[in-house]
Write a structure and sequence with these properties.
By secondary structure, this protein is mostly helical. It folds into 2 domains: 2-42 and 146-181; 44-144 and 186-283, Metalloproteases ("zincins"), catalytic domain (Zincin-like), CATH 3.30.2010.10. It has helices at residues 2-16, 22-39, 44-62, 69-84, 118-123, 127-142, 145-167, 172-175, 179-185, 191-207, 214-228, 235-238, 243-257, 278-283; strands at 94-98, 106-108, 113-117, 267-269, 275-277. The protein has a 3-stranded mixed beta sheet, with helices on both faces. Strands 4-5 form a two-stranded antiparallel sheet. A hairpin with a 4-residue loop joins β2 (106-108) and β3. The longest helix has 23 residues, at 145-167.
């Protein structure tokens, strides 16, 4: 990082100094300042503020599902339970449900905010599947994937910003205003990061007492529905590696790392006295 900043400074002053114009020297100073600021690691407060902004953009793009507070409370309970067994139990894991019944998707900000569509909840078949999905998203934050992606984007922004200052092309700022949202919500992560999130998310869920096959079963449901239906929008697949490869990798992880044992489903008693799997009880209205 220091080498890049030094090279930029040398180039800027090589161009600026011969002109002996104070305005040019001043612009070079601002450009260098922007570059140095963009290449340093994000502070905790910056991560928090950036996550707030990105979260507002995500929620605003789809709308918040607030018709069933009990469902929101239930999903948050599972998220906090799984998050407690992650590499970063200190993160404030919270889930906001998005009112998008025909979209199967979820997002995670760098500080642990999870956004999940109601369309995804409709596909979920058990609480273990829900725990596996939440574990995957939690792993992106706990393993630093989101923070790293945003920092990489900030470096690109710093270069563009510094160049636009020197060239007095301030229109470039408008083009980069939404880049952090794009990094989190639209751009695919690397296969290595997605594989790590699948693996660690499975570890987190199993440590919390859930069947480690939860995420695996969910991926199989999504694959089958993708083949057999055309109504739902599987946006989550657009930014992830091939689903068949993910399934194969997870099967190998589970076979090599977990001993077979019973994972009894969590049930709840309905008003009529019938016992039902807890996730089915809370998502019944959606389905």
């Amino acid at each position: 990082m220091r080498r890049i900043c030094l090279v930029f400074c040398l180039v800027m002053f090589t161009v600026v100094l011969p002109s002996c114009e104070w305005e040019d020297v001043e612009r070079a100073g601002y450009a260098t300042q922007a570059l140095v600021s963009g290449f340093r690691p994000l502070t905790r407060d910056e991560v928090y503020q950036m996550s707030l902004g990105v979260g507002a953009r995500i929620a605003g793009s789809r709308g918040v599902y607030d018709r069933d507070p009990a469902l929101t409370k239930y999903v948050n309970m599972v998220a906090m339970t799984v998050g407690h067994y992650s590499d970063r139990p200190d993160f404030y894991y919270r889930v906001l449900l998005l009112d998008a019944p025909d979209e199967v998707n979820a997002f995670m900000t760098a500080d642990g905010r999870i956004f999940m569509t109601t369309g995804m909840l409709k596909v979920i078949g058990s609480e273990s599947e829900l725990a596996g999905i939440l574990g995957h998203e939690i792993a992106h934050a706990a393993r630093g994937h989101v923070k790293k992606a945003v920092e990489n984007e900030r470096r690109k922004i710093a270069l563009i910003t510094a160049a636009s200052i020197m060239m007095e092309d301030y229109g470039a700022f408008a083009e980069i205003a939404n880049s952090c949202f794009d990094v989190i919500a639209l751009r695919p992560r690397s296969r290595e990061q997605e594989s790590e999130a699948d693996t660690y998310g499975t570890y987190y869920a199993e440590a919390a007492g859930y069947d480690p096959k939860g995420l695996l079963e969910f991926l199989k449901h999504v694959r089958d529905k993708q083949v057999n239906t055309s109504g739902s929008s599987f946006k989550a697949l657009d930014t992830h590696p091939d689903i068949n490869q993910r399934i194969a990798d997870l099967e190998n992880v589970i076979a090599c790392n977990f001993r077979p044992r019973a994972y009894p489903p969590v049930t709840i008693t309905t008003a009529s006295g019938r016992r039902i799997e807890r996730s089915q009880y809370y998502t019944a209205m959606l389905k």
